[in-house]
Amino acid sequence: MIRTKLQAFSAVMFLVLAAGVSTTAVAIKGEEPRKPITVTAANTALDRILQDIGRTYGFDVRGLQHIQSKEAISITLSGSLEDILGRLLRNQNYMLVRSPDNPSGIEKVIIIETTQGEDATATVMRRRPARPAAPAARPVSEARPPRLSASGN
User: Fold this and answer.
1) 22-116 adopts what CATH topology?
2) pTM, rounded to two decimals
3) Residues 86-101 pLDDT 10s
4) Euclidean distance between CA atoms 119 and 109, whole angstroms
5) For 67-99, b where at least 16 C-beta lie within 10 A, e where not — what string?
């Protein structure tokens, strides 16, 4: 019985300690998003960092499930809000939807799904406008010699 309680206690302590090791932290300094801000993240996944930035500056972040890497990162970034978002999302396909009503100037960030493999990049090909056909060249045998006038005109 004591052994069972000790094993249960050990299991609970292991879970508590393991949870403590994977704590995350995001600190955002800067009240005005149109001025330089600083974002510091310690051992935090990118989706959590983006959610915290969106919550702080009042915009929605959609498509978090499309983030390619789920690894925790530690990073400090300074600059404008748009610069920081661009650096955080540099390996993602995303759109910024702007809003004049939000003090940050951003209504939402949408992360777009990317397909892995050959079809990962979409190429838009446009046809060149057709050029008018050049007049057919005459073979040398059919070419007419220039006319020479004998009158000297």
Assistant:
1) Phage tail protein beta-alpha-beta fold (3.55.50)
2) 0.60
3) 999 998 999 999 999 9
4) 24
5) beeeeeeeeebeeebeebbeebbeebbbebeee
